[in-house]
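REQUEST
  id: r-88c1
  op: predict_structure
  target: LRC43 protein
  payload:
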Amino acid sequence: PGSVSAAFQEHLKHLGLQDFPCGFGSWNKSRLNARRSPRAEPAGLEKDVPVGEETPEALLELLRDQHSPWALPPDCSPQDRLLREVAALAPELLHGSGVFQLVKSLRILDKGVEEVDEGLLRFQQLEELILSANHISRVTSAHLPRTLKVLELCCNAVDDLQDLCAWPPPELQHLGLGYNRLCGPFQEKHLTVDFWPNLVSLDLSFNSLTDPLELVSQLSTLQNLHILVLQGNPLALIPTYRGFLVDSLPKLSILDDIHIRPEERQQFHGLARQPELIRSEARVVVSIGEMKGLPNPEAFQQLEVGSEGPVITYSYCVTYEF
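RESPONSE
  id: r-88c1
  status: 200
  body:
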C-alpha cells in the first residue's frame, strides 16, 4: 500500500473483525437481535443462549486464550486487542466509520508507506501515530488529526519540514525524526515554539545537521522541551558539543538518552557564552591493528643486490567514509 489509509485497511483485514468469533454471525444472532428490539429480553446468561450460539464470555475466551486458534500473537498492540474484543462484544460499533472513532493509537511499521494521505482525518480521536521504517519523504500537516500528541517518523526519507510545519497539530508532545535526511542550514527554522508550542520530546538523531549555534537558537524557544536526541549528526562530533547543549538549554532533562545531572550542568556552566568554542571541525585518529591479504614486504628483501629479478610495485588505497 502506498498510503497510510491503504495500509490501515490492509491491517483491518488481517485482524479479521468480521470473522468468527468477531463480527455478526450465527454465533451471536439472538443477542444482536435483542439489542435491536427494545421489547426483547437480552440473552445475557449462558442458559438463555440458544443452541449453536456463544456467550460473550465464551467469545472473549477464544480471543484471549493463547492456545486458541483465534488468539492474536503475543506481540500485537493493545489497540489490536481492543478492536478484536469490541468486534466480538459489540460489532455494530465498528460498522461504517465507527472503527475510526475507537482508534487512539495507530502503528504502521515497515509497510512501504509513501504518503500520509487525508484519510487520516477520519481518525478523530487519534493521539499516537507511529510510521517508522517506511518510505515517507513529505508529511502534509493538513492531513494530520488535530488531536495528535505523538508523531514518530523514524527511519524514513524526510528531507524537508516545510509541509509538516504548515499547520502542525497544536498539542503534539513528541516528534520523532531520527534516521531521516534532514540537513542544515534551513531546517532549523522549523523547530521553534511557533510550530510546536507543547513539544516535550524531540528526536533528530542520525540526520545531517551541522550547525549547533543555529539549532540551539531555535530550540531555545521550545519552553517545554525536556528530552532531546541529536546523536549521529555531524554536529555531535564537536568536542564541546554536549557541554554547549547542556548549558544553552537549561530546561533539558535528557540529552541523547543520558540524564543531565546537576553536577554536569554546573561543570559546563558558561559554555553557552563562548560560541567560539563551537568549531565545525573534528580530528579523527584511526588505528589499524591488523591487515590481511597483503604481500609480506620481507619477501622482497631476499633479492640479492644487482639481481635481474622482476621488480613488482604494489599500491594501496584506503578510503574512510563518514
